Amino acid sequence: MALSFIKKVFTFGKPAEEPVPEAAERELEPRSSDEDLPIAADPVLAEEMDTAGGPAADIDEALAEQEPVEAQSELLPTVDDLGDMGVVPLSLLEAEAEANADDAAVAPPSVPSGHLPHKGGDRLEDDAAVREEGRVEPTEVFPEEIPAEEAHNIPVEVEQGSQSLPPLVGEMSDRTEGDVTPAEAPPNPILPRGFASGPVAEPEPLVTPQPRLSWFQRLRNGLARTSSQLTGQIAALFTKRKLDDETLQDLEDLLIQADLGVETAMRVTDTLASERYGKDVTGEDVSRIMASEIAKVLKPVAKPLQLDLSHKPHVILVVGVNGTGKTTTIGKLAAKLSGSGLKVMLAAGDTFRAAAIEQLKIWADRTKSEFIGTKLGADAAGLAYDAFEQAKARKCDVLIIDTAGRLQNKAELMAELEKIVRVLGKLDPDAPHTVLQTLDATTGQNALNQVEIFRNVAGVSGLIMTKLDGTARGGILVAISAKHKLPVYFIGVGEGVDDLEPFEAEDFAQAIAGISQ
Ligand SMILES: Nc1nc2c(ncn2[C@@H]2O[C@H](COP(=O)(O)OP(=O)(O)OP(=O)(O)O)[C@@H](O)[C@H]2O)c(=O)[nH]1
């Protein structure tokens, strides 16, 4: 499965020709990581450490304009899905941990059963304060081990701010407190919970497995709000009306309001006018033309993510505004890559918040990826450099670096991201080989501004749009593609590990136009 899957999702480029220069002289203190990886010193000159400048109005406005994020999806991956990908489900990891806990073991109090450490609720001021006050020891990021009994008494719902995160794995949501004790953990971690090896009668499964939907069905379901709103309005517009200038204008307005963008709206109305002016038009006619025109816009940007594995590692830097799904997307990508037999390292370059580091660590564990993190508030560029060195030393195929998106102003954003790119370039002038930006579909038009900003700051080479499930604003991907013409590699339609799929222009265009395949 390994190579065929990789070929489907990623393509491979030519080997790099430029020699890798020697590491730059280092001047700063060595840092520690969560793993017992050897830690490199910060490659950045002391004078480079200062981030420049005061607030820049444009980014403040763009970030402030961001609309409230819509409700999170309930869609979750199943244990089977994870198994299909060669990823060990968190439930099994937990079972293993719980089995170990029987004797003396430990559970991180910040990561109770089935829950990711919460990432929301913390504020810029808090982050700034942490940075002001100085760096926090890693033990605060990964708290001291505690006795198993205490770990199991931790409430299932953790509230560390204004919201709590849903469980990672589908089966976790069915579990109630006290369902599982260390004594109940299966002795063999290869078997799912509730099964035992040997001649023991198998208990009835608690949940009847649901038939697995095809990707297109899941895409259709995810985009149902976008398409039903759009097709409903179009059907209402064309009830018993011939196509004239007025209906064309109304249709154009409607398509623009659906976030498709002026350019695509005009393409649809022009084609419709050329085919059916003065004639009766049905909603189906419009949907067909709309799907065809949208596909024309999307086809040039629907590209596979190119991995040049001769780099060892191919370095992917992931950027984007806070909450757009960077960390989750990194986890999903890591699952695909490591499930296909590649050696992956995840680097927690979002050093602003402890929970961001913890969440990435959990994704690394789940996906059997290597992990490198650093102290809260530490210099992200230094971590990126260390990560690159370690990934090289450990012969990783792919290094994926998370970054902070919660930055107060454009100058700080530019300084941090530019510095990361600069220090990576000291180890390989082509690095980062890919700069991915995550975009949250629910933010609508604001996503257009975000691409503008991060393109300029970080040299974004491709996009991943997340949260296309359950939003009525999926049309924004069409507007972004028409305006920026950047490759769109994947789309996210849920929080689960398998809710990330390669972007297919035809599928997306048909799903948004409400056309069945
Ligand atoms: N419904 C849905 N939720 C998603 C998707 N991708 C990510 N999320 C959720 O969005 C929330 C934010 O995702 P994160 O991965 O933490 O975002 P981030 O950009 O790393 O945020 P920071 O680390 O805070 O900068 C989490 O609750 C994710 O589970 C998606 O495709 N669909």
TrEMBL record:
Annotated source species: Rhizobium mesosinicum
Subcellular localization(s) per the UniProt record: Cell inner membrane; Cell membrane; Cytoplasm
Family from the record: Belongs to the GTP-binding SRP family. FtsY subfamily.
Assigned keywords, A-Z: Cell membrane, Cytoplasm, GTP-binding, Hydrolase, Membrane, Nucleotide-binding, Receptor
Record's subunit section: Part of the signal recognition particle protein translocation system, which is composed of SRP and FtsY. SRP is a ribonucleoprotein composed of Ffh and a 4.5S RNA molecule.
Protein name per the record: Signal recognition particle receptor FtsY
Domain SRP54-type proteins GTP-binding stretches: 487-500
Listed InterPro entries: AAA+_ATPase, P-loop_NTPase, Signal_recog_particl_SRP54_hlx, SR_rcpt_FtsY, SRP/SRP_N, SRP54_GTPase_dom, SRP54_N_sf
Disordered as annotated region, ranges: 16-58
PANTHER family linked: SIGNAL RECOGNITION PARTICLE RECEPTOR SUBUNIT ALPHA
Biological role stated in the UniProt entry: Involved in targeting and insertion of nascent membrane proteins into the cytoplasmic membrane. Acts as a receptor for the complex formed by the signal recognition particle (SRP) and the ribosome-nascent chain (RNC). Interaction with SRP-RNC leads to the transfer of the RNC complex to the Sec translocase for insertion into the membrane, the hydrolysis of GTP by both Ffh and FtsY, and the dissociation of the SRP-FtsY complex into the individual components.
Annotated positions binding GTP: 320-327, 402-406, 466-469
Gene: ftsY
Phylogenetic lineage: Bacteria, Pseudomonadati, Pseudomonadota, Alphaproteobacteria, Hyphomicrobiales
